[in-house]
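Table S7 (text form). Paired inputs.
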Amino acid sequence: MTIRISCHLITWGEDLLKGLAEASGLGYRACETFTHIALQYENNVAAFKELLQQHNLVLSALYGGGRFSDKSKRQEVIDYNTRVARFLQACGSDRIVFGPGGPRPEGGMTPDLLKTAAETINEAAKRCFDLGVKACVHPHLWTEIQDEHEVDAIMELTDPDYVFFCPDPAHLAKAGMDPVEVMRRYKDRIAYLHLKDVTLDDGDADSVSVSSGTEALPIFCELGLGTVNLPGIVDLLKEINYDGWMTVEIDQSTSTPLNSLTICRDYVEQKLGIPIRGQ
């Protein structure tokens, strides 16, 4: 069993070329990037693939999704995710992250909204699956799928043959869940993973930042600097023989993207025991 490590280029913002170069230089051999950046190459996939190859990288996934609970947007959501899945297929990648839309409805999601969301997810995921791409639902703070009962409802109402799970332990923890427990519950449907850390000392799911000592940190911090039980996550993945991608992700650096992803790389290799360089 080998967990494969990918690096999200979100930390470099819109600078794709610098992100590719520095991530590759750190030893990462796969990446996820902003979908709107990747789709700039939609009519020249060969150029995008060549760019990845120049940096010894492959594309692990792209972020799709949409406003699942708005029935009037259903066809738009299906068409967009099919478009992204077609690009992924052309790039040799077989995972799409289904990110739910925001903002959250006032008072959270009702049973009717969750039912509508599940129906849209099912239809969009089936279209992706037909293209050889697995759609992985990603619960996310501040969106229509944030809290535990919303995660449970979506997983219960969607088709396990087409709809998979992309947990992010930091998002789950910040929303008040035990990430290991939730991941164990849906272990048979985990097909992609974002690996993030977060400090939980201050604020709640409505916070935009937290404080650590005298330094203000983004809500999500470098791996090992927060309070998420990352070793427990990896232990579970090993237990279930997970051999897919685990994408290291830090939204914003307080220093430089290179420094932040170096800290993350060293943590994964030294503390979690998963090689990145040479994988």
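Next pair, protein 2 of 2.
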Amino acid sequence: MPTLRNKVALVTGAARGIGAETSRALARKGVKLILIDLDAEPLKALATELGDDVALAVAADVCDLPAMQKAVNSGVAKFGGIDFVLANAGIASFGSVMQVDPATFKRVIDINILGVFHTVRAALPSVIERKGYILVVSSLAAFAPAAGLTAYNASKAGVEHFANALRLEVAHRGVAVGSAHMSWIDTPLVQDAKDDLASFNQFLAALPGPLGKTTSVDACAAAFVDGLTGRKRRVYVPRWVGIFAWLKAVVTSRIGDRTLLPPVPRILPLMDEEVVKLGRSTSARNVALDDVAVDPK
């Protein structure tokens, strides 16, 4: 069984949710951690919790390549190199293509796609040197689209294919690449959507079978640690998500439309109304962090 002890992992989106819990789980296995997030306060608290000899916290925006390079350089200077990358940072926007705030739509694409590129670009030389492993966090959304979540769907499909292409580029250098695909996880992203939007809760309730169920962050973190340990090509959370990887052509066909279309005329207008009332197309937490990114202290 491969051991993770004394390996070094870079984790983006590390301040909360999946990033934070995966970091804790990795630390318990003896991994050293380079923690990156734009939200400096909880990031610093996590690093303090894990210990200075275990974790380095660097507040940085994944959309800023020089900042990411500086963060990577700091981590390599402290721990000697990078064995694993968990490209986890991501946000979502809500509302139809006609209603969603264009700036928020762009911010989702920037964080979820360019942020992955910047993370990988900055860390790749060290990962190649150590013949390491990169896990790009995509989503079930890469296989199954949802009205009102277009930016998120597009970005997660994009990073899945980014991982597929990257795998071809670095395999001969001894580097393995995987993509993670989760259904709804009980993260701040999903919690905020549930709190903000009655339409989002109706959307989940309308989904068939297990598609509307939410999985714990702990279960997701355990699956990610298993994926990192085994350098897996795909990580599915829960495991049934893997079925949709194989059924993608069916889900996006007219057959899939028959399942996904019926609630849209009822739920999408409600979501658009709620977005207008909120005055934002993303969570209040993301709006606050966007202000930090635009005007860094």
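The mean pLDDT is 95.
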